[in-house]
Amino acid sequence: MSTADDLDLSSLADDDLVEQMHDDLYDGLADEVAEGVNILLSRGWTPNDVLNKALVAGMGIVGVDFRDGILFVPEVLMSAKAMKAGMAILRPLLVETGAPRIGKVLIGTVKGDIHDIGKNLVAMMLEGGGFEVVDIGINVSADDFMTALDEHRPDILGMSALLTTTMPYMKVVIDTLKQKGRRDDYIVLVGGAPLNEAFAESVGADAYCRDAAVAVETAKAMISARRQHAVPAG
Amino acid sequence: MTDTIISSATRNVVIGFDRPFVVIGERINPTGRKILAAEMAAGDFTRVTEDALAQVAAGAHVLDVNAGVPMADEPAILAQVIKLVQSLTDAPLSIDSSVTAALASGLAVYQGKALVNSVTAEDEKLEEVLPLVAKYRAAVVGISNDESGISEDPDVRFACARKIVERAADYGIPAADVVIDPLVLPAGATNGSGAGTIRLIRRLREELKVNTTCGASNVSFGLPNRHPLNAAYLAMAIGAGMTSAILNPLHAEEMAAVRGADVVLGHDQNCAHWVATYRDPDQDPRRQREGRRRRRAENA
User: Fold this and answer.
1) Could A1 and B295 be called an inter-chain contact, meaning their C-beta atoms sit closer than 8 Å?
2) B275 touching A, CB under 8 A?
3) B288 lies within 8 A of chain A by CB
4) Who among A4, A20, A70 is closest to B295 (CB)?
5) Would an 8 Å CB–CB cutoff place A65 in contact with chain B?
6) Spatial distance between the Cα atoms of B55 and B61, rounded to a whole number of angstroms
7) Interval B33-91: pLDDT, tens
8) Rounded alpha-carbon distances, angstroms, from residue A30 to A27, A88, B25, B198
9) Phi and psi dihedrals of B70, rounded to 5?
């Protein structure tokens, strides 16, 4: 074990290093992931390539194994932490270079509900999936959602609820959007333990996401579908 | 914070507050095991070897070794067993005998800092055993009964524990090297005695500031469906502050209770131990990795 721990990342060729970073993300090794990011940058990789080929691809493996019951919550949280360590280095560089992100997600737990473990997990996995994520926390009212949507102008609105008593509030938020004529400005994804497809449809959401991995897959699929169908601007 | 450090030549195990619970494997003990007793008396240690390896594989942190074979040379056999087990595993040992000469012979050959199992609050026992514990700078299990026997009154058992700790101090043995067994009485024979023991565990931790251990399976003596009952007792006792127990690590229910208690108390960082133990091993892709891949450092 100690011999494997002594691995010198800088001695690896790019492909091997990226593969190693996928493993290190999988194993939740934050320092090693950050080190890998710095090495790739020092070899002239663009921040966007580091993000996509090393971090996003690595978190993709984590997401699939989480979905399939191979990885468990504490492990995914560690992986997300490792990803964040890499992102901390990349984020300012990405802003500087204006590299395009897949899309922007605004996410929160609805009013009356203070549960956030699942919502946080989804937020982290979305970030790991290449999205820009704005997490506006728990107990979010329809008004607060509207204000945040105005401020951040996301592509996707994500809502979470863990209680059967709070999940109907998702309809309140979506109805508010409809009243303001802004429902079609956003892809609306909903999730949480008591929800299902039928509920999502009944409140007027675009999709129900069973878990964090499905949320990433669904977000990606819906963004690309929307972009394909969008009328090209000017 | 009280840490009882016991060691082999190459490995420390710490029994302590706010640390993972320490499992002391009980299997190497001929009491009630006719075949093992016969083998040990004949100098055949096949079963001892198997028991040592199986218990460590099952998650025991420390192994109890007892060579109390009737009509045999217990001091000599115990020394042989200790040497053998120390050659098989780096788990520290609990040297278990009610015969002081056997404890002396075991300590003489032991590599590291042993846990001596045990001394009671009987004056004669204290005078025999504590000098040995002091001489070898070992740790000792103190059983909370005295000449008058095992009291059903937890206050009396607490007084016995205090007496052991104070007498140990007279021999220069710090309280951190005394692990008190508050004595678990069979629930089937002494209705509700478990509640008193749970309170006693808490008192031992808060007032005497000592680590604790117990023979967890006593609680279910004479009852059906023993393992889940032992598990319930273990989880409650750990919640009350018990820091180690002597048990059979091959029993899944008891081990799940211990590991579960560690998770609940936050003594299993990131639930890493729980997940590693209970994930379907065929599902772990890390197993398919070859040597080149890094592995997460064990959470000590």
Assistant:
1) yes
2) yes
3) no
4) A4
5) yes
6) 9
7) 999 999 999 999 999 999 999 999 999 999 999 999 988 999 999 999 999 999 999 99
8) 9, 11, 36, 41
9) -60, 140
Has residue B294 got a pLDDT over 60? no
From chain A, the residues in CB contact with B285 under 8 A are 26, 65, 70
Contacts for B54 with CB less than 8 Å, ≥ 6 apart: B27, B250
Residues B223-252 have pLDDT tens digits of: 999 999 999 999 999 999 999 999 999 999
B105-108's contacts with Cβ under 8 Å and 24+ in sequence apart are B105/B75, B105/B76, B105/B78, B105/B79, B106/B65, B106/B75, B106/B78, B106/B79, B106/B82, B107/B132, B107/B135, B107/B136, B107/B138, B108/B79
With CA atoms as reference, the chain B residue closest to A1 would be: B295
pLDDT in tens, A127-171: 888 899 999 999 999 999 999 999 999 999 999 999 999 999 999
**pTM for this entry:** 0.80
What is the nearest CA distance from A234 to chain B, expressed in angstroms?
A: 49
Amino acid at residue number A156: I
Residues of B in contact with A28 (CB under 8 A): 270, 296
Residue A7 and residue B271: Cβ atoms within 8 Å?
Answer: no
B41 close to B67: Cβ distance less than 8 angstroms: no
